[in-house]
Amino acid sequence: MDDRYKIALETVAKINEAGSKRIEDAVGAIAPDFHRLIMSFAYGDINSRPALDLKSREIATIAALTAMANARPQLEAHIVGGLSVGLTREEIVEIIMQMAVYAGVPASLNGMMAARAAFATVDGTAKKKPAQD
């Protein structure tokens, strides 16, 4: 295991280790190196840098993913990650509301639905999706 990947795994363990594992499981069969590559870059090279703490990084990530409006699974994972590094639900809601000004109401509304789902996941009240063939 190279140092970048080791640092990545240590960093992601503080944010959302379960989310990282889901990515690894999802892509492992078709692209086994992809998880290592994205983790090494995102968490080994970027998120582990000392200039910002993990809470600040999750604020930026939640804002960016909300503004993108097309990355709901990643937004939900980072909302869970935000809670893991000390953001409150109220702060997360405010971050998403702020994006209504800069990314538009539809993007912000989609973000709120992602927050609702992420909060339900954390609370253990998320509805299971039916299996698909």
Structure description:
The chain is mainly α. The chain has helices at residues 3-15, 17-28, 32-46, 54-68, 72-84, 89-103, 105-123. The model has no long low-confidence stretch (mean pLDDT 92). It has 2 domains: 1-51, no CATH class; 52-124, AhpD-like, CATH 1.20.1290. The longest helix is centred in the last third of the chain and has 19 residues, at 105-123. α2 (17-28) runs antiparallel to α3 (32-46), α4 (54-68) crosses α6 and α4 crosses α7 (105-123). Helices cover 77% and strands 0% of the residues. It is globular, with a radius of gyration of 15 Å.
Uncertain runs are none
Query: What overall geometry do the principal axes of the alpha carbons give?
Result: globular
Predict the CATH topology of the largest domain.
AhpD-like
Straight-line distance between termini: 35 Å
Level-2 CATH architecture of the largest domain: Up-down Bundle
| The CATH H-level homologous superfamily of the largest domain | AhpD-like
Secondary structure: number of strands: 0
Instruction: Evaluate the radius of gyration.
Output: 15 Å
